[in-house]
Design a protein that fits this description.
By secondary structure, the protein is of the alpha+beta class. The protein contains two helices and six strands, in the order αβαβββββ. The protein is elongated, with a radius of gyration of 17 Å. The structure holds zinc ion. The site of zinc ion has 8 residues, from loops.
Length: 113
């Protein structure tokens, strides 16, 4: 399961970061998940909760921001949002797109005490 290994990675980063910042406990984690990552946000949330059940990170709130696929048409120059993975410009029909958002898989913030 893809999401489980990502959850483990996030947990490792959060643990490292909270040690660095001397946090007694982590309350909330903000994640940004781009649509191109193929990560199912709810599956990731479930994997995170399952993996932290008996750890100091149990019960941490996870705030997931879904990032749509966005870019620019190289033919007509318009900013576009790709929906349903159809990589065609809705304005001029060109398939030459420059994608600059949607590949994010980031920890946006960690809130703790
Ligand atoms: Zn276009």
């Amino acid at each position: 399961m893809h999401e489980l290994s990502i959850a483990m990675e996030i947990i490792a980063i959060v643990e490292e970061e909270s040690a660095k910042r001397n946090l007694e406990r982590v309350e909330e984690i903000g994640l940004k998940i781009g649509a191109l990552t193929g990560v199912d946000p709810e599956a990731l949330r479930f994997a995170f909760e399952a993996s932290t059940a008996d750890t100091p990170l149990a019960g941490v709130r996870i705030n997931i921001e879904n990032i749509p696929v966005r870019g620019r048409c190289l033919s007509c120059g318009k900013a576009i949002e790709v929906k349903e993975f159809i990589f065609i410009c809705p304005y001029c029909g060109a398939g030459d797109l420059e994608i600059n958002r949607g590949e994010e898989l980031d920890i946006a913030y960690i809130v703790g005490l």
